[in-house]
Amino acid sequence: MEKLQHNGKVITCILPKGEALGLLKKLFDKGVTRANFAFARGFDVHDVDNPRTGIPDAVEKEIVTLIADDEHQGEELFDFIFQNGNINRPGGGLIYMSKIQAASIYELPKIQNSMASAEGIRPVEVTL
Predict the structure, then answer these.
(1) Which of 14, 25, 48, 113 has the most CB atoms in a 10 Å sphere around its CB?
(2) Beta bridge pairs of residue 15
(3) Domain of 80: which CATH number?
(4) Which domain, by its residues, includes 31?
């Protein structure tokens, strides 16, 4: 089995503080399991200028990155994120998509019910 994916898309969102967890929940409900969330500092043109410097102060932003398996899924997820991530408003953030050069394949292991019960493994409910 090939360990790298070469034909997908990477979608990156830069969001105002407090927006990423809600977006991740919506993506998880849609079946997306390959999403990352990190913090950064920066400003955009809609932030208020600091009177001393004439530019906005750097504030905390949230970065969401995810991998789409192909161009079709990439376009579908891009539209979903734009509509559901509060990006479609002034100051709502930034989203862009590009072709990946390579990404590692990520799949959850398949556990058969008989094996899981024999080994005492119980399903765990994950909430974001």
Answers:
(1) 14
(2) 62
(3) 3.30.70.120
(4) 4-118
Query: How many domains is the chain built from?
Result: 1
The helix (H) or strand (E) run that includes residue 27 is: helix 20-29
Indicate whether 9 belongs to any domain. yes
123 found inside a domain:
no
The tens-digit pLDDT sequence of the chain (128 residues) is 567 777 889 999 999 999 999 999 999 999 888 889 999 998 877 778 889 988 888 889 999 999 888 899 999 999 999 998 888 888 888 999 999 887 777 666 666 655 455 455 555 555 55
> In angstroms, what is the C-alpha Rg of the chain?
19
Report how far Cα 84 is from the mean position of its chain's Cα atoms. 12
**DSSP one-letter code for 92:** S
Q: How far apart are CA 88 and CA 95, in angstroms?
A: 10
Cα separation, 91 vs 47, in Å, equals 7
Would you give the distance in Å from CA 66 to the centre of its chain? 4
Q: Decide if 93 is inside a domain.
A: yes
